[in-house]
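chain below, 118 aa
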Amino acid sequence: MSQEQLEVNYDQFYLTPVKERIKIFNKISAENRAFLVKTHAERWLTGNRSRLTHEQSSAVEEMIHSISPEWYKTRHDFSEEINRETEVLINKVEAVLSREDVLQLATNRAKHIPIPRN
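prediction:
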């Protein structure tokens, strides 16, 4: 994209209505996409860790660790190599979390999560 590429922070993105989020996500860089997804997953895990089992927490931590701009370099399609790796992670997370947890953890339709307070 051009040098004028849009960049958004977590709060700007997740406080925007869902329809607009999807448009924004399609316009931002792979690095910005990965940042938003990773930040959201980290906040989600922090806010939900106390109710998760060790297996659930571990699956989410593994997913967080794997999130990278490479996931988003080819628009929304993953390369074959990344697709195999992410498919395993996605299946693992989906197997251990409820559908609602997966939707709140890993979609642009998720609710905004404020910075966790200690």
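Residues 30-48 form the longest helix (19 residues). The chain is about 60% helix and 0% strand.
thats it, cya
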